[in-house]
Design a protein that fits this description.
alpha+beta, five-stranded mixed beta sheet, 16 helices, globular, DUF5921, histone acetyltransferase activity, WD40_repeat_dom_sf
Length: 753
């Protein structure tokens, strides 16, 4: 459980990103909780890093005019409407965040997720975590969109007739509703074609952000990747949805016969749900609908609270399909979309009998299509879709959080990317029929998978990236730290995978398991590292010359030291008897230490062997890039000769691919070595170690693990788990070196900061 400093705010206050960060919208900021599968920690608890993300003169004059109007229909409407009047005056101030949304993985400069944040006073901004544990606002979309509307005289199209002035209350309402965001959602990453100066076309990644406004219009922003700020905005198109009182939207993305189709699903507070076509230019392989498709048209006054779109495979129709689920009151509306030769087939229905209270939050596991819903009374429902010949049905079961946490109220849920954890925002529930005096908001993490399920999913993963599966590796980490050994079935299955395919992913998985095993075998330190030691004072008293001491004095001094030690240990939560046993070197203890030390040395040797294998594989990749992108006798700035010699220095390493590649490179280099030189003394830096370079004068430089160049500067980057060092790209670097420097850690797949 992680306690929040402020109460939650907004609708759907919890969101879990693809790079394993949980955002919680609170009354003061957005709390970001990042889950790490730390290989350097021996504790069994989850490792979480915590961070936080935080009008014009004419408008102010008009607000004052409407607030003091003698016409009560104007003044009261203005004062009670939180859109026009977020400060509230006599009402409590509108502080905090209304909604937050994570982009797909690979959108910022570090290849991670962007965070779009909507405040209670209707300001939409985009943030990025560029430096470790530091958030930076990249762009204020509310300001930019307002400038665009001002330049267009607040007309959506050129055919629109001019409206009244800002001093007119109806015009004031219209302008506010067309600039007040309700929700925003990111699309998947798509590819656009960019024409260069020499008329060549190159593929550029882009992402779309759809923003739903109160007047039912939708602004679709297109950003070029990596998103760096205002200069990365490619376009902004406005779509008229025609839905009254819009409440929520979601992207519909469907792949059929290698053709990607996309649209926007919009829900209304009155009940209807429909998909709108989104027309985009210069997007490779992108298609959309010809006309809007109505999924539910009844105006039954059941507001649409949340919409999720899940891509699935239909086992009977043998094709891909889309499952759209929407929370409407206490019910779940579902719609199955499937494209056949006859066109778009739509099957829809409602799942009833789930909750006695309205659904406050809904989340979906996109790996298997499982949907989770919760109401405020602490009840969570798990809905598992089961396909039939025609459409599908849901099996649902109740998860009572009260059995785990006691009496609680729930405010939001989110499932982790691989479905291993469920994050739940809770406060105290009723006790003996009474509400709690104070509310303590907490984010609770509940496991949804067993260790065996997580291990099997990691072994059969199509992603083959440990960082993108942190929630699964965290369950494996907990099991090994608890049992202090790697389960036999997992060890055998992993060895078979390595023998059959030899992918570096399975070698990295093996390295992860060995590192956790090494941590589980380490003895916990008996002394707290930051606490000052009293040993020096004890030595000075007993050994100082000219101080005579009787046996009684010595005994008294010893008893004082023992009492201090026992008090110290008691403060640390240790048993005095256990401490005494640890401090006395018994014969049985000595006998038991030797095999443990031997096991530690054995595991350490295995870790070094796996690290060396991964290093050699990456060296081969770097040498392949060098061979493909350099001309004869060209200095690449990469210590090519040193890397070649390092690969061939071990007689036991016999890789025919590496030998052939090195032979071609040495032939291309034509006996030239192009050595690196120390920037302090100009001496040659020999390549004898993959981690550091030491010149003849003793100057030590760390080596970049991505290019094996020496980092001869005071500023460099580190991977998320502090595994490796990488240098920053420079303007002189060619494109292929910059591409190498964008890679993740070769040991743990973590991004580099």
């Amino acid at each position: 459980a992680v306690r929040l400093q402020h109460g939650v705010s907004g609708l759907e206050p919890l969101a879990w990103s693809e790079d394993h960060r949980v955002s919680v919208s609170t009354a003061r900021s957005i709390a970001v909780l990042e889950q790490l599968s730390d290989v350097h920690s021996g504790g069994q608890e989850m490792v979480i890093h915590r961070t936080a993300v935080g009008p014009k003169k004419e408008v102010a004059e008009c607000k004052e005019k409407f607030a003091s109007s003698v016409d009560p229909t104007v003044s009261q409407t203005f004062m009670l409407d939180r859109v026009f009047n977020p400060e509230g005056k006599s009402l409590p101030p509108m502080r905090g965040f209304k909604y937050s949304s994570w982009s797909p993985l690979g959108c910022d400069a570090n290849g991670r997720c962007l965070l779009a944040a909507l405040t209670m006073d209707n300001r939409l901004t985009v943030h990025a975590n560029l430096n470790r544990l530091q958030w930076v606002q990249l762009v204020d979309l509310t300001e930019i969109y307002g400038e665009r509307l001002y330049e267009a005289s607040y007309k959506l199209s050129k055919a629109d007739t001019p409206r009244g002035e800002l001093g007119d209350f109806s015009e004031f309402q219209r302008r506010h509703s067309m600039q007040t965001p309700v929700r925003m959602e990111w699309s998947g990453i798509c590819t656009t074609q960019q024409v260069k100066h020499n008329n060549e076309c190159r593929d550029v990644g882009s992402v779309l952000l759809a923003v739903l406004f109160e007047n039912s219009n939708i602004a679709v922003w297109q950003f070029q990747l990596p998103f760096l700020g205002k200069e990365s905005i490619t376009s902004c198109n406005t779509i008229e949805s025609g839905i009254n009182s819009p409440s929520v939207l979601s992207w519909w993305e469907y792949e059929h016969n290698n053709r990607k189709m996309s649209g926007l699903i919009v829900g209304s507070a009155f009940g209807p749900v429909k998909i709108l076509p989104v027309n985009l230019k210069a997007v490779k392989g992108y298609f959309t609908l010809r006309q809007p498709v109505v999924l539910w048209q009844e105006m039954d006054q059941l507001p649409v609270h949340s919409i999720k779109c899940i891509p699935l495979y239909h086992p009977y129709q043998k094709c891909s399909c889309s499952l759209v689920v929407a929370a409407r009151g206490a019910y779940v509306f579902w719609c199955l979309l499937l494209i056949s030769k006859a066109g778009l087939n739509v099957h829809n229905s409602h799942v009833t009998g789930l909750h006695s209270l309205p659904i406050v939050s809904m989340t979906a596991d996109k790996q298997n299509g499982t949907v989770y819903t919760c109401s405020s009374d602490g009840k969570v429902r798990q809905l598992i879709p089961i396909f039939t010949d025609v459409a599908l049905k849901f099996e649902h079961q109740l998860i009572k959080l009260s059995e785990v946490f006691g009496s609680v109220r729930t405010h939001g849920i989110a499932v982790s990317p691989c479905g291993a954890y469920l994050a739940v925002i809770t406060t105290e529930g009723m006790t003996n029929g009474l509400h709690p005096v104070n509310k303590n908001y907490q984010v609770q993490f509940v496991t949804l998978k067993t260790f065996e399920e997580a291990a099997a999913q990691l072994l059969e993963s199509s992603v083959q990236n440990l960082f993108r599966q942190v929630d699964l590796t965290d369950l494996v980490r907990w099991k090994i730290l608890k049992d202090k050994h790697i389960p036999q079935f997992l060890q055998e299955a992993l060895d078979k995978k390595i023998e059959s395919c030899g992918s570096t992913y399975f070698w990295r998985f093996k390295l992860f398991l060995l590192r956790i095993l090494y941590q589980s075998m380490q003895k916990a330190p008996s002394e707290v590292m930051w606490r000052p030691s009293h040993e020096d004072a004890k030595i000075l008293i007993s050994d100082s010359p000219g101080m005579g001491s009787t046996e009684d004095d010595q005994e008294e001094g010893t008893s004082k030291q023992a009492s201090k030690q026992s008090l110290c240990d008691t403060g640390k939560g240790m048993d005095i008897d256990d401490t005494a046993e640890d401090s006395l070197p018994q014969s049985s203890d000595i006998g038991g230490r030797e095999p443990m030390e031997e096991k530690l040395l054995e595991v350490q040797a295995q870790i070094e062997a796996v690290e060396m294998h991964l290093t050699r594989e990456h060296m081969k990749r770097v040498l392949g890039e060098v061979y493909l992108h350099t001309w004869i006798t060209e200095n690449t700035s990469i210590p090519t000769r040193g890397v070649c010699d390092f690969l061939m220095s071990d007689d036991g390493y016999d890789d025919r691919t590496a030998r052939v590649l090195i032979g071609h490179i040495l032939k291309k280099m034509n006996k030239q070595t192009f050595p690196e030189h120390c920037s302090l003394c100009k001496e040659i830096l020999p390549f004898t170690d993959r981690k550091q370079a030491v010149c003849s004068n003793g100057h030590i430089w760390l080596r970049c693990f991505l290019t094996y160049q020496s980092c001869q500067s005071l500023v460099y980057r580190r991977c998320l788990l502090h595994d490796s060092i990488a240098r920053h790209p420079t303007p002189e670097d060619p494109e292929w070196i910059k591409r190498l420097l964008q890679g993740p850690c070769t040991f743990c797949d973590s991004p580099v900061f």
